[in-house]
Every structure is written in C-alpha cells, then in structure tokens.
Write a structure and sequence with these properties.
The protein is an all-alpha fold. It has one helix and no strands.
Length: 261
C-alpha cells in the first residue's frame, strides 16, 4: 500500500471548477473599475460638491451680511410703522364704523322688532293669566274650601276629644289604683326574685356544676363510646363493602362505554 493518491478524470458533462489559475483576470479587472470610478468621482461628483459648498457658503454670507440686516431694517423701520398705521388709520375706524353703523342698529332693530314684542306676548298671554289663575285659586281656597275644612277639623277635634281622649282619661283615672297595685306587685316580685336569686346563686351554680360533671359529661362520653363502638364500624363496613365496590364498578362501566377516561 502506498500514500500516492489516484487522479481520476472528470465525468463527461461535469462543470470544471476553476482553480487558482482562473483568478488573475478578475483581479486584473478590479483596479481598472476602481480607476474608472475614481475618475468619474473626480470629474462629476467633486465639482458638484464644490459648487454646492460654494452656494451654501454664499447663502450663509448673504443671509448674515445682507438679507438678515435688510429684513431687520425693513421689519423695524417699514413693517412696524406700516402695521401701526394700518391699525390706527384703517382697523380702528373700520371697527368703529361697524359698531356704530351695523352692530348698534342691528341690536336696536332686534330689540325693537323681536325682543320687546316677545316680552309683551309672554307677559300678556302667559304671565298675567298665570298670576290671575294663582289669585283665583287662592280666593277659591280661602272662600270656598277653607270654611268646610275648618268645620271638618273642628268636628274631628270634638269627636276625638269626646270619644277618645275623655274615655281614656276616665279609664286611666279608674284604673290608676289597680295599675299602681300591679306595678307595686311587679316591683315586689322582682325584688323577691332578686333576693331569692342572690340567696340561691351559689347553691344553684354548684348544683349545675355537679350535674354537668356527674351526669352530662359521663352520659356524653358513654354516648360517644357507644357511637364509636356501633356506628363507626358499621359505617366503615358499608364504605368498604358497598360504596367502594359500587364506585369502582361504575367507573369501570363508564370507562368501558367511553364516557370517562
């Protein structure tokens, strides 16, 4: 075996790849293109750029030394006096003429032909009828409605006085001794109950404590023990023997039917 590689001829129709021997023509063309581009830039772009810079510098000099001072001079010594003269000699007289010959006559005309007739119509056909109607209603209330209402009020007061207040007053007078006796009895019973409660407070409290500790607590403990001994095993047996198999069977049936995954 040898390390020499075997050179195989290319296949028919396969494109040949240019090696390093094919680069010199392209490398020779690049300096020519660059030289042409530099020549075009020197001949076309550089003069245009210089002309633009010259125009820009000329414009800046003209604005600084000619246009700017001229504009300030014209604004200060021509436009400002002209604006003052136009305001004083044209605008102010035009405003005065418009106010005197147009606005004030128009206001007077509107006030005379529209506002005053409208006010007269409203006062004559709306306000005065309303005032008259209010006076008429006040007269009707004072002359027609007030006497019957006054008589009705007096009759109602007389009826309440004789049918409610006097019987209640008489009943209160009659029942006052009995009421005082009832109140005295209630107060005495309350005092006796308080005295008995003060006497029996400690014995009753001790009796309740003894009944709680001797009767209620043992009964509750026995009931709890009985429940734990009877109900809890039955509940565990029902859960394990009935409910869990039924739940597992229903889950398997639903899974088999494709209703549950």
């Amino acid at each position: 075996m040898t390390d020499r590689s075997t050179v195989r001829p290319p296949l028919p129709g396969a494109p040949t790849v240019a090696g390093p021997a094919a680069d010199p023509p392209a490398a020779a063309e690049l300096p020519l293109v660059a030289a042409v581009a530099r020549g075009v830039a020197l001949v076309v772009v550089l003069p245009v750029r210089l002309l633009w810079e010259l125009i820009a510098a000329t414009g800046r000099l003209l604005y600084r030394y000619l246009l700017g001072p001229t504009g300030r001079f014209l604004r200060r010594w021509l436009l400002a006096p002209l604006a003052w003269a136009l305001h004083r000699l044209l605008w102010v007289p035009l405003v005065w003429l418009a106010r005197t010959l147009v606005w004030l006559p128009l206001v007077w005309l509107v006030r005379t032909l529209v506002w005053l007739p409208l006010v007269w119509l409203v006062r004559t056909f709306v306000w005065l009828p309303l005032v008259w109607l209010s006076h008429a209603m006040a007269w009707v209330a004072r002359v027609v409605l007030r006497p019957p209402l006054v008589l009705f009020g007096r009759a109602l007061v007389w009826l309440v006085e004789h049918l409610v207040v006097r019987p209640l007053r008489w009943l209160g007078t009659v029942l006052a001794p009995a009421g005082r006796l009832v109140v005295a009895a209630v107060v005495g019973a309350w005092r006796v109950a308080g005295w008995l409660l003060r006497l029996l407070y400690r014995p009753l409290l001790r009796g309740l404590r003894w009944a709680w500790s001797a009767i209620v607590v043992p009964v509750a403990r026995g009931a709890g023990a009985a429940l734990r001994a009877t109900v809890s095993p039955v509940a565990r047996w029902i859960r394990r023997s009935v409910l869990d198999p039924a739940r597992l069977a229903s889950r398997e049936v639903l899974t088999a039917l494709g209703l549950r995954r």
